[in-house]
Amino acid sequence: MAQKPSIPKGTRDFGQQETAERNYIFDTIKSVFRTFGYSQIETPALENLSTLMGKYGEEGDKLLFRILNSGDAFADVNLSLPGKELASKVCEKGLRYDLTVPFARFVVQHRNEVPFPFKRFQIQPVWRADRPQKGRYREFYQCDADVIGSRSQMNELELVQIVDRVFSLLGVNVVIKINNRKVLTGLAEICGFPDKVVDITVAIDKLDKTGIDAVREEMLEKGLTTGAVAKLEPVRGMGGDTASKLKSMRAMMESSPTGIRGLDELEELFTLLDDAGLSSTCELDLSLARGLNYYTGAIFEVKARDFAIGSICGGGRYDNLTGIFGLPDMSGVGISFGADRIYDVLKGLNKFPEGLCRSASILFANMDGGSVRYVLPLAAELRRRGIAVEVYPDSAKLKKQFDYADRKAIPFISINGSEEMDSKTIQLKNLATGVQKTFPVADTEAIVSALKETLPD
Questions:
Q1: What local confidence, expressed as pLDDT, does residue 204 receive?
Q2: How far apart are CA 178 and CA 287, in angstroms?
């Protein structure tokens, strides 16, 4: 009995329609990245586990896909070793968890080849051993833009401008939530638990998913006191505009120089955003945490206003990432577009343009060998002029050829027999309107003009 084909949970096949729609997302994002001066790079799917481990926090490390060493991975290995030690002996590589850590490794490894500040973008798949659910996959694409080698918050402003432009082009109404990790560090300090900043951050990051009660319970389990948790809770419900929130936080943060620095940075950034006309799109969210340990400054999260799904874009500033690889004092800031979630949003809101899946603008029907030889020179000339052309490969019934054009959303079909060959003309039929026109086969300009009327903008 033949094996039933399947794919791993948390992964997906993409057919021609989905691939065309995803390319629309990628092409839109790429076009915006390039208008801000970002250059594209790529890194391997595999990284050394030593590169990946310890960069995403304890929970992130658990989600790394590890890869057995090639050959007999267990040869000459003491199988009685403890689990973690055994894993380190037989798995030296892993699939990348995100694009930021490999980017930091790239910068250090190629430091003499790139200009600083270095502005790069990268669009590649990443893998996480997470529990699959709606909007969460084990294999998914990220679209990252980072600038490294500058501490100026003009870079943060530029990334927010990129986000705003991308979603404007895609037709998605978004809110860009902003916080600063120094503020979160300050909260840990004023609670009396400066060593618990990671635990507090991870717990706060789950507020939208689990609710305040579950977060309160988790923080108590991590060793915080009831009084310390009580000091954190007012932050979540803090209302008012940005200025009033910052004023209230300054009163809370008097005893934390780190927290005050974070508030200063937020004030500077929101002033820049206001100057750039982006304040209505952005929101200061003091409960925003983002659970990745390498963030040290501004952090961002983007959500669709009109579609219920998790964050569709996020990022932040990191000061210490390249130092792990031997290049200290190289501050960077970046954002990552979640292409798969953006796809779900565009699909749910019916925002994809029509005709993305169109493989060609015209199909030349195959009546017989003579008709094919007649249209081949014209097909070649149209392709030279940038028109996508298909010639049906088999001499089949016209209904079958019409059905083929319809399934592939080809707008024109050209049927040419002995009459057209004798008069040196071609027939061009618009399948949407049913209108059929005749052109001299030598009048390529007129044929191209007619076909271009159907091309997407």
A1: 67
A2: 10
Cα 249 to Cα 247: distance, rounded to the nearest angstrom = 5
Token code pair at residue 78? 């003491």
> What is the pLDDT confidence band of residue 239, given thresholds at 50, 70 and 90?
confident
Contact 414, 365 (CB under 8 A): yes
Compute CA distances 8 → 138, 139, 351, whole Å: 9, 10, 29
Phi, psi angle pair for 93, to nearest 5°: -130, 160
Which residues are 175's β-sheet partners?
Answer: 303
Could you give the CA distance from residue 222 to residue 210 in angstroms, rounded to a whole number?
Answer: 16
* Rounded distance between C-alpha atoms, residue 121 and residue 103, angstroms: 10
The residue to which tokens 């799109």 are assigned = 281
The angle at the Cα of 345, spanning 342 to 347, to the nearest 5 degrees, equals 110
d(CA 38, CA 271): 24
Q: Which pLDDT value is given to residue 213?
A: 75
Our CA angle for 84, 85, 90, nearest 5°, is 95
What is the tens place of the pLDDT at every residue in 398-455?
Answer: 999 999 999 998 999 999 999 999 999 999 999 999 999 999 999 999 999 999 876 5
Predicted confidence band of residue 304 (pLDDT cuts 50, 70, 90): very high
Q: What are phi and psi of 448, to 5 degrees?
A: -60, -45
Structure tokens at 400: 């079958």
The answer to whether 100 and 294 are in contact (CB under 8 A) is yes
Q: Give the pair of three-digit tokens for residue 441.
A: 């086969």
Q: What is the share, in percent, of the chain residues with pLDDT greater than 70?
A: 90
Give the integer Cα–Cα distance in Å for 145 and 143: 7
Short-list 337, 364, 425, CA closest to 29: 337
Q: What is the pLDDT of residue 240?
A: 83
Strand order in the sheet with 436-440: 389-391, 362-364, 412-414, 425-430, 436-440
Of 31, 297, 304, nearest in space to 145 by CA: 31
Segment 97-122, tens digit of pLDDT: 999 889 999 999 999 999 999 999 99
- Distance, CA of 226 to CA of 244 (rounded, Å): 27
How does pLDDT run across 201-225, given as a tens digit for each residue? 666 666 666 666 777 777 777 777 7
Burial code (b: 16+ CB inside 10 Å, e: under 16) for 22-59 equals bebbeebbbebbeeeebeebebeeebebebbbebbbee
Q: Are the CB atoms for 339 and 140 separated by under 8 Å? A: yes
